[in-house]
C-alpha cells in the first residue's frame, strides 16, 4: 500500500484523538445522570442500526456482480432502492407520526432484516424486492429514530442544548467508528474467513435483531399529531402547508437536499477520481480514512455546539463553502496537473491532492449531520416531524436516481462541478436562513390547515 495513504490515515487518527482528549469544560456540556442513561441507551441502539446499514454497503454491488448481473441490471436495482425511498418514504414517515415512532423503528429493523434475507437468492425479482424493502428501511432510518429521540428528549424535560450532545455523539459513533469497525468486520467475514459475499448481510440482520430487542424492551412510544381522525392525505397536506408557509423549513429542506444529493453523488465518483486509469487502490482503507475524517468533523461539531457562539446557522455557511471548494479539486487538478497514463505506477500528485480534498469534504459531512439535526429539531414542528423529514428526501432521491441513470453520460469533472455548484448554493441559502432565524416560529401546522379537525372538542 502507498505510504501516502498510511500517512493521511495516521494524521487524521492523531488529530481526532487529540481533539477528543483535549476537551476542556468549555467544550463539554454538564448533564444529569438521568439524561446520560437515556443518551447511552439511544447511542447503543443507533450504533447497532448503523452497523446493520454499514455492513451491507460495501458488498451490495459485489454481491450482485457475483450473481452474474451486469452494470445495467445492477444500476436498475440501485435506482429501485432510491425510487422506493422516494415513493414510500413519505408514506411511512406519516405513519410514523400517526402510529408511533417506536413502532416505526421496529418496522425499520424488520424491513431491513427481510431485505438482508433476500440477498441469499440469485433471482433478479427477489433481489428487486429486497432493494424496495431496503429503500423503505432507509427512509425510516433517517427519520423515525431522530423523530423519536427529539420527542422523547422533550417529553422527559431535558434541556434543549443537551440534544446537540446526543446528535454529535451519534454521528461520531454511528457514522464514524461503527462504519470503520463494520468495514473491517465485513472484510474479515468475506476475505479472511471466506464466508462469501452474503455473510455481511447475515451479520447485519443479527445486529438489527439485537437492536430491535433493546427497542422493544426499553423504549416508550411517542407520536406526532395526536388526533386520531387524520388520514394520510390530511397529514401530507398539513406537512406541505408547514413547508410552504414557513421559509425556515423550506430553506432547511432545500439545504439538506442540495448537500445530501452532492454527498451521495460523491459516493459514486470518488473511486474513478482516485483511479483514473483503473489502478488498483485500497478501497477499504480509503473508506476507513474517509470515516476518520467524518469523525474529525463530528468532533469539531460537538465543540462548536457546546458553545453559545458561533451559532449553527452561522458556522454552517463556512462549512458549505469549504465543501464546495473541496469538490472543485478534481477539476483544478485536471487542468493544472498533467494526468498520469501509467496504470500500475505509483500514486500521482493529482490523486494525492484529490484525496486530501475528499477528506476535507468528509470532515464537512461529519460537521453537517449533527448540525442539520439540531436545526431540524429547532425548526420542524413536532406534529409532523417524520412526514416533513421524508418530504425533504423526495428531491434528494429524484436527484440521485437521475445521476445514477446518467452516470456514464457526463465526464467526471462535470459531475464534480455540478456538486460544487449545489454546495455553494446551499451556502447562500444557509446565509438566508441565518438572516431570518430569529423570526418567530410558525404556529402549529394543524392550526394553519383549514380542513384539519380541532385537537380538542
From TrEMBL:
GO-annotated molecular function: molybdate ion transmembrane transporter activity
Any one biological process term the GO annotation gives: monoatomic ion transport
Keyword annotations of the record: Cell membrane, Ion transport, Membrane, Signal, Transmembrane, Transmembrane helix, Transport
Record's bilayer topology term: Multi-pass membrane protein
GO CC term (a single one): plasma membrane
Signal peptide: 1-18
Matches recorded under InterPro entries: MFS_trans_sf, MOT2/MFSD5
Primary site of residence: membrane
Segments traversing the membrane: 42-64, 76-96, 128-149, 170-189, 201-220, 285-306, 318-340, 346-369, 390-406, 412-429
UniProt subcellular location: Cell membrane
Gene3D superfamilies, sorted: MFS general substrate transporter like domains (1.20.1250.20)
A Pfam short name: MFS_5
Function comment: Mediates high-affinity intracellular uptake of the rare oligo-element molybdenum.
Protein name, UniProt field: Molybdate-anion transporter
Amino acid at each position: 500500500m502507498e505510504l501516502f495513504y498510511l500517512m493521511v490515515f495516521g494524521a487524521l487518527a492523531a488529530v481526532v484523538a487529540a481533539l477528543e482528549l483535549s476537551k476542556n469544560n468549555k467544550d463539554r456540556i454538564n448533564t444529569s445522570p438521568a439524561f446520560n442513561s437515556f443518551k447511552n441507551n439511544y447511542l447503543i441502539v443507533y450504533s447497532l442500526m448503523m452497523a446493520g446499514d454499514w455492513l451491507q454497503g460495501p458488498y451490495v454491488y459485489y454481491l450482485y456482480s457475483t450473481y452474474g448481473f451486469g452494470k445495467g441490471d445492477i444500476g436498475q436495482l440501485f435506482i429501485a432502492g432510491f425510487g422506493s425511498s422516494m415513493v414510500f418514504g413519505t408514506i411511512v414517515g406519516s405513519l410514523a407520526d400517526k402510529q408511533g415512532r417506536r413502532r416505526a423503528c421496529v418496522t425499520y429493523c424488520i424491513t431491513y432484516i427481510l431485505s438482508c434475507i433476500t440477498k441469499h437468492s440469485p433471482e433478479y425479482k427477489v433481489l428487486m424486492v429486497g432493494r424496495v424493502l431496503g429503500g423503505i428501511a432507509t427512509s425510516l432510518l433517517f427519520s423515525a429514530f431522530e423523530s423519536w429521540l427529539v420527542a422523547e428528549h422533550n417529553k422527559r424535560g431535558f434541556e434543549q442544548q443537551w440534544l446537540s450532545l446526543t446528535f454529535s455523539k451519534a454521528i461520531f459513533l454511528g457514522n464514524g467508528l461503527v462504519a470503520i469497525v463494520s468495514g473491517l468486520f465485513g472484510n474479515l467475514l468475506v476475505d479472511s474467513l471466506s464466508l462469501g459475499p452474503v455473510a455481511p448481510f447475515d451479520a447485519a440482520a443479527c445486529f438489527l435483531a439485537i437492536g430491535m430487542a433493546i427497542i422493544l424492551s426499553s423504549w416508550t412510544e411517542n407520536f406526532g399529531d395526536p388526533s386520531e381522525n387524520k388520514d394520510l392525505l390530511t397529514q401530507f397536506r398539513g406537512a406541505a402547508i408547514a413547508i410552504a408557509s414557513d421559509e425556515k423549513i423550506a430553506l432547511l429542506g432545500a439545504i439538506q437536499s442540495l448537500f445530501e444529493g452532492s454527498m451521495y453523488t460523491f459516493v459514486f465518483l470518488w473511486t474513478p477520481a482516485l483511479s483514473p486509469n483503473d489502478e488498483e487502490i485500497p478501497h477499504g482503507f480509503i473508506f476507513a480514512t474517509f470515516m476518520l475524517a467524518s469523525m474529525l468533523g463530528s468532533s469539531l461539531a460537538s465543540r462548536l455546539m457546546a458553545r453559545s457562539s458561533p451559532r449553527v446557522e452561522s458556522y454552517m455557511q463556512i462549512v458549505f463553502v469549504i465543501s464546495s471548494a473541496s469538490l472543485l479539486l478534481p477539476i483544478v487538478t485536471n487542468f493544472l496537473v498533467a494526468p498520469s497514463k501509467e496504470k500500475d505506477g505509483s500514486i500521482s500528485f493529482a490523486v494525492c491532492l484529490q484525496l486530501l480534498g475528499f477528506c476535507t469534504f468528509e470532515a464537512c459531512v461529519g460537521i453537517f449531520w449533527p448540525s442539520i439535526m439540531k436545526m431540524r429539531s429547532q425548526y420542524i414542528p413536532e406534529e409532523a416531524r417524520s412526514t416533513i423529514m421524508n418530504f425533504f428526501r423526495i428531491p434528494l432521491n429524484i436527484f440521485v436516481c437521475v445521476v445514477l441513470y446518467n452516470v456514464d453520460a457526463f465526464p467526471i469533472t462535470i459531475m464534480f462541478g455540478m456538486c460544487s455548484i449545489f454546495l455553494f448554493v446551499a451556502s447562500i441559502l444557509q446565509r438566508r436562513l441565518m438572516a431570518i432565524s430569529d423570526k418567530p416560529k410558525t404556529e402549529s401546522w394543524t392550526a394553519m390547515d383549514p380542513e384539519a379537525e380541532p385537537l380538542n372538542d
